[in-house]
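Subject: for your reference before the review

Hello V.,

The reviewers asked for a structural picture of the protein, and I figured it would be easier to keep everything in one thread rather than splitting it across files. Below is the amino acid sequence we used in the manuscript, unchanged from the supplementary table.
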Amino acid sequence: MSLKTAIVRQFGKPSGLIGGLAGHIMARRSSNRIRNRRTVELMDLKPNSRVLEFGCGPGLALALCAETIGKGRIVGIDHSPVMIRQAKQRLAKAGLDENVELFTGGIERLSDLAAPLDRVYSLNVIQFINDKADYYQRVFNILATGGVCFTTYQPRLDNDNPNGAAQMADRIEAEMTSVGFADVTKTKISAGETPAICVSAIKQSASYNASQP
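And here is what came back from the structure prediction:
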């Protein structure tokens, strides 16, 4: 197995030395930095926003959130201890770790969070989530009325067709609307040779049940 192949296989759940290298690549790759910055811009954060990133990776977007949010709340979840460690280091080095909570875990951790939140987002994580309906239901449950969920996806050049982002965006829209999200918006992000698409939708319902999955 080549080093490139080994690194690519680590993007789903980085571990060990090669996983650490994958995290550094995520943080430095220009297309990924553009994707992170544009997604955070689309969220229109305020100083008191309450935000969660699911699959926070090395903390690139969390740091961007922390530059705006002062008195609010920022939460990052990732199932890779390697990524949580890199995120902690990045935030601490930048002096942006005061309002950030980091947790190791997967979808199951969403139900443990003190809610409600204003924004929940993910970047190139949705393709690794098998039960997407379950994920969006849990996100819906922890969002405040009027809260927004953002999902950004950019396919890799080596294994996805040219319409991969659009096809995933359609699937995301279907999953979101099936659990109650409304006003779905799809925003194209120019980040590298293949397009990324950020799909956002609003929780309009006033119902919130922390006991649901």
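For the response letter, the relevant points are probably these. The longest helix spans residues 164-178. The longest strand covers residues 143-153.

Happy to draft the paragraph if you're swamped.

O.
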